[in-house]
Amino acid sequence: MIALTTPYLWYTTRATGMVALILFTLVASLGTLVANRIGGTIVGRFEINELHRSLSMVAVTFLVIHILTTVLDSYVATGWISAFVPMTSAYKRLAVGIGAVAFDLILAVWISSLLKLRIANTTWRFIHWFSWMGFATALVHGYMTGTDSRSGFGLVVVASCAAVVACAALWRFFGRPTRAAGRTALSPLATTKAATRATPVPPRATPPAPRPFPTSPARTTKQRGPR
Prior knowledge:
The chain is mainly alpha-helical.
């Protein structure tokens, strides 16, 4: 196993962890706007939806870098397995285990979003609820293990992220429940095939029955009389 000991890995772990938390805060907030079908003429629903998807990709990238630098840094013994399996780390077993749970939940939501057109809509919606649990566990993990999240600017960032997502969750569940029920975050560009399948095909009009060919009246032969 590759192991390194350098302060740059520690700095990278701290920075990417904080950036990932901020990005997931934006992703959760934008997901609430998508679910409640918010959009106007200046910023439409499609733009909000695509921003939500793009930021989720960037957030997962920073999360992966955060995990890689943590595992590669041999100053603390975490190990590759502890990134996926909770309670297997020798360093801060509970805190790192909560982080592994957060990563597993976020990974499940991300993979299900990539396979959205191939799975049932109810299955995707059920898995997507894990994003709230993933953010909550990531917040607890960052507070318990982060060296910057318990005081100063880091504490302000963690508290602000928690407050923003809490307000978004309350508005999601109580603000417009009738509009939010059963809504999905499908992208118009990514769902062309799904929209085509969902569009009912009008029945073909039956051609009119052919008219009967007009028959000429029977010719009557004149009987010749006697000469």
